[in-house]
Automatic annotation (TrEMBL):
It holds the Pfam family TPR_16. This is Tetratricopeptide repeat-containing protein. TPR repeats lie at residues 146-179, 216-249, 388-421. PROSITE patterns: TPR. SUPFAM superfamilies: TPR-like. InterPro entries: TPR-like_helical_dom_sf, TPR_rpt. Keywords: TPR repeat.
Length: 440
């Protein structure tokens, strides 16, 4: 069986918010009340689907009566971006672009809400360089608006400019401490290996949550943080508390299925994933389901999910989304080593962040280029993220290079960080570690 690509956990669609804290460099502390700002077009990260659909309907009705309304066009465009995230339907992205472009056509100068919306759309389509440009233009118009720095934080994070990302998150927190800024702060801490600070930031976000959807959003990421640290019981408790607030939340249902897989309840896990991908066929969920099927020896069913995944990838591409990172991982899962490398190189050409570095390093290994692979895998770990997948990839390459003592350290780190990091790779990591320790 070919080696598989194992994606690091917590890589939902990039529009899912990432990283920080109110005093980001020192600790998470209460901030001053947010200053009044000009109206912006952003939509809350955990916007309830029914409320969002109502907001879209209201905006559409208003624009039918008064089509010359740049602010409402901007708000509608941003709502479409959020609707695409919630539904996993990329058809909303062209709608968002059309609405935002109408807003800018009606008000070409000083249209901060539309600029923010265009930045969010660019991030959602993985055009992070474009998002940075839109965010910088928005900052020139609305320099005291938190949502501007959310766009910039997401873009900088994905482009691999860690210092600029942290600075943008800090500015977001200075202007508007709340769910969106604290969740971004959490991811920034996690990327830098500061897990306790990441958890504290999420707990601050939870404390600021007033809606069931925001509570579910925060509980999901608290669960993810626990799961990625190997704390399955704690993760399960967070997911279940989130589902108590929002029983239909698909991300939390994915978390429940993931826990079932980690605790050996494979049938429950497969049933859970089947439900999840039926509700929201996000590429991440489809790939996780396919990998679980492969780990259970159900190749034909896994192939069916890969076929669905191919279709979803084509739909996203047609809507302007570029995602060679996922494409590289899928290609590796299917034994297409050349494809894995081609996609990883394309992704690295657009952004040099830790995820792209890990993907390229792993793809190089799959193609027998281990010295080069290690260079990128070292770069993937440079920020200090305690990521079991990164450690597994690095340990595998070190073993291939004959550096067995270092391989033992890296593989041990992977399993100590999260012994359930992948239904495909974790068992292989244990086998490889036993073999290396036995000197065989």
């Amino acid at each position: 069986m070919p080696e598989r690509s194992i994606r690091p956990r917590r890589v939902l669609a990039v529009v899912v918010l990432v990283a920080g804290a109110v005093a980001l460099v020192v600790s998470v502390s209460a901030g001053a009340s947010a200053p009044a700002v000009a109206p912006v077009a952003s939509v809350p990260a955990a916007h309830p689907p029914d409320t969002l659909a109502h907001s879209i309907s209201v905006a559409q009705d208003k624009l039918r009566r008064t089509p010359q309304d740049p602010l409402t066009w901007a708000q509608l465009g941003s709502a479409y971006v959020e609707q695409a995230r919630i539904t996993a339907d990329p058809a909303y992205y062209p709608k968002a672009q059309g609405a935002l472009e109408k807003s800018l056509a009606q008000q070409p100068q000083g249209n901060g809400p539309a600029l923010i919306g265009m930045g969010a759309l660019a991030n959602a389509r993985h055009d992070f360089a474009g998002a940075k440009t839109w965010g910088e233009r928005a900052a020139a118009v609305l320099p005291d608006t938190a949502e501007v720095y959310g766009v910039l934080a997401d873009a900088f994070t994905q482009l691999g400019d860690a210092d600029a990302a942290t600075d943008a998150i800090q500015r977001m927190l200075d202007h508007k401490p709340g769910v969106s800024s604290f969740t971004r702060a959490s991811y920034d801490f996690e990327l830098h290996g500061r897990v306790d600070d990441a958890r504290q930031a999420l707990q601050r976000a939870l404390a600021d949550s007033t809606s069931s959807s925001d509570i579910a959003f925060c509980r999901y990421y608290l669960g993810e943080l626990a799961f990625n640290s190997g704390q399955v019981d704690e993760a399960s408790a967070e997911y279940e508390q989130g589902l108590a607030a929002d029983p239909q939340n698909v991300a939390l249902l994915e978390g429940r299925a993931k826990v079932a897989a980690a605790t050996g309840r494979v049938d429950d896990a497969l049933a859970g994933y089947r439900d999840v991908v039926t509700r929201v066929p996000l590429p991440q969920y489809l790939q996780e389901y396919a990998e679980l099927l492969l780990s259970a020896g159900r190749q034909a069913e896994a192939n069916q999910q890969f076929a669905v995944l191919d279709g979803q990838q084509r739909l996203f591409a047609a809507a302007g989304v570029t995602d060679d990172l996922t494409a590289s991982s899928i290609a590796a899962d299917r034994g297409d080593r050349a494809g894995a490398l081609s996609h990883a190189q394309a992704e690295w050409g657009r952004r040099q962040n830790v995820l792209a570095a890990d993907a390229l390093g792993w793809a190089l290994h799959l193609n027998g280029r281990d010295p080069e692979a290690l260079t990128y895998l070292d770069r993937a770990g440079a920020l200090g993220w305690r990521n079991a997948t990164f450690a597994y990839h690095r340990g595998t390459v070190l073993a291939a290079l004959g550096r067995h003592a270092e391989a033992v350290t890296a593989l041990s780190e992977a399993l100590a960080t999260n012994p359930h990091f992948s239904p495909l790779a974790a068992p292989g990591a244990r086998t490889a570690l036993d073999r290396l320790k036995g000197g065989r």
